[in-house]
Amino acid sequence: MDIAPYGVILKPSDGLRILRGEATSGFSPKANYIFRKQIEEADFVVINRVDELSPADVSELQSLIEKEYPGRPVLRCSAKSGEGFGALVETLALRGQFGKRVMEVDYDIYAEGEAELGWLNSQVVVESKQEFELDQLLVDLIRRLHARLLSASAEAAHLKVIGLCDTSYAVANVVSNQTGPELSLASGTKTMTANVVVNARVAIDPADLEVMVREELDSATEAIGATHNVVSLQSFRPGRPVPTHRIQ
Across-strand partners of 194? Predict the structure, then answer.
């Protein structure tokens, strides 16, 4: 069996703050431990979203990775523009002695770091008697959620809102508190019914995260004269990892 190169994709804003050792990285040392262990295991590292940072900051981030984790090629990519994807495809097609980095993990620290993030997955049906702009709904909802996270000093590791209707879909997201919300995929669609998915991983108690999401769903749908029905919602902290097999 051939094992392809194992790559780790970095968010540059978080990666730069953590590798610089900044106290304001937004995550605790235990959460940062997970970040560093993931790089340690990688055969190569991808700096995605290079358009978010200045060329000088991207070069600094690459230098920090190469210094702390030598022997791992560092690729620069942008999923938005397509920059660097040729090199990424070529790297993934390589065959050789990959997947051989077996790192030592303190699973107690790892579990505590994971448990500092509240996870939330939800699906909501939004309905209105008149057409509303799907993109506007998502942007308003993601902005409201981002404002709540800032007010609670809760760092977002991942926050995404997806809207789907019969003819199209749209995506809005927050990659980090510093970069703020954006409509990453516009639909340009008006509809009377939409399925809205909220997916979040935030450094906050999951019960508090659930309250935020429910309240801002109420506010965002009320603002367009719509109603919503929560089809499913789970908020939780991940359990302690218990590995049963390791590649040697």
Answer: 126
- Enter the CATH code of domain 117-236: 3.30.70
| Tokens coding 37 | 């262990």
pTM of the model: 0.83
pLDDT in tens, 84-113: 999 999 999 988 888 777 788 888 888 888
Per-domain residue ranges for the chain?
Answer: 7-113, 117-236
Element (H, E) at 120: strand 118-133
Q: How far apart are CA 121 and CA 87, in angstroms?
A: 33
Cβ neighbourhood burial of 238 (10 Å; 0-12, 13-18, 19+): middle
67-84 core/surface letters (b: 16 or more CB in 10 A; e: else): eebeebbbbbbeeeeeeb
What is the number of other CB atoms lying within 10 angstroms of the CB of residue 91? 16
Q: Determine the Cα–Cα distance for residues 75 and 239; give it in Å rounded to an integer.
A: 32
Residue pair 144/180 in contact (Cβ under 8 Å)? The answer is no
Q: Hey, CA dihedral for 126, 200, 22, 150, is it positive or negative?
A: positive
* Distance of alpha carbon 230 from alpha carbon 247, whole angstroms: 42
d(CA 59, CA 111): 32
- Per the CB < 8 A criterion, the answer to whether 202 and 209 are in contact is yes
Q: What are phi and psi of 116, to 5 degrees?
A: -75, -15
CB count in 10 Å sphere of residue 196: 25
